[in-house]
Amino acid sequence: MNSLLSEQILPLTITEKLQLIEDIWNSVVIEPDQIPLTQSQKQELDRRLASYQNIENCGESWGIVKQRIIKHDI
Q1: Which three-class secondary structure state does DSSP give residue 35?
Q2: How many CB atoms within 10 Å of residue 36?
Q3: 32-48: per-residue pLDDT in tens?
Q4: What InterPro entries does this protein's entry cite (predicted)?
Q5: pTM of the entire predicted model
Q6: Which label site among 17, 21, 55, 63 has the fewest CB atoms less than 10 Å from its CB?
Q7: Count of the separate structural domains present in the chain
Q8: What is the mean predicted confidence (pLDDT) over 3-9?
Q9: Which structural domain, as residue segments, surrounds residue 38?
């Protein structure tokens, strides 16, 4: 890292550093198509999307979940 940049960042408070991180992250996600993915990452995203789209994986209704919570059978 550039020493001048280091000299500017190191004295910042934690809050200021976190804000800087957020600002940098926001500038990265503006162009998500520019973020390279490995083949295994692409496969994992495809797997998760297929699982999400699977009708059998739709979860349970609020009524069923509420009954389990009330029965402490979480």
Answers
A1: coil
A2: 6
A3: 777 788 999 999 999 99
A4: CHP02574_addiction_mod
A5: 0.42
A6: 55
A7: 1
A8: 83
A9: 3-70
